[in-house]
Amino acid sequence: GPSVERLNEPVIRVRGPGVVPRLARVETTQIAPSWNVLEAAFIDVANGSRGRYSVEGMLGKIFNEDWQLWAVLIGDHLQALIGTELSVELTGNRCASIVFGVGDDPKTWVGIITQLEEWAKTQGCNRMEVWARKGWAKYLDEYKLTHVMLERAI
Q1: Confidence label for 132 from pLDDT (cuts 50, 70 and 90)
Q2: Which residues make beta-bridge pairs with 24?
Q3: Quick one: which of 14, 28, 69, 119 has the most CB atoms within 10 Å?
Q4: What angle do CA 85, 87, 93 make, to 5 degrees?
Q5: Distance between CA atoms of 77 and 11, rounded to whole angstroms?
Q6: Within 10 A of 66 (CB to CB), how many other CB atoms are there?
Q7: What confidence score (pLDDT) does residue 37 get?
Q8: Are 82 and 72 in contact (CB under 8 A)?
């Protein structure tokens, strides 16, 4: 598929039947040349994180290779941006976590998570988890709601 750099070119946004979302890993070398396309998504993630994430902090995690960055493309249009993290649990099991996801019209692209699951398996993971607001559960039928996070500003 096209590299993220091509997103800097003017594009025609094609939607409709037969337009299939594609998942593309965004390499760190692609971030700067594509920043004019990526910046708004990073800001949306930071603004929706209730103070957990900053743009600078997320970029630090990605450039340090603690997180992986993924683009969901429909045609050459950036439909969504997803961040993942690989970890080893106390039991020794490997887990892939979706630490953020932001984009337009989730029902058109959320099925792409199966490709992330396949990638996670190649990384030795036997579990995938998604950190998300409660509303995402309706899009992720095959996932089980196992915990609720309670928080309070102090």
Answers
A1: confident
A2: 71
A3: 69
A4: 135
A5: 7
A6: 13
A7: 93
A8: yes
The mean predicted confidence, pLDDT, of the chain is 87
Tokens 């976590």 belong to 97
What's the 3-state SS for the chain?
A: CCCHHHHHCCCCCCCCCCCCCEEEEECHHHHHHHHHHHHHHHHHHHHCCCCCCCHHHHHHHHHCCCEEEEEEEECCEEEEEEEEEEEECCCCCEEEEEEEEEECCHHHCHHHHHHHHHHHHHCCCCEEEECCCHHHHHHCCCCCCCCCCCCCCC
d(CA 83, CA 55): 12
pLDDT digits (tens, 9 = 90+) for 93-105: 999 999 999 998 8
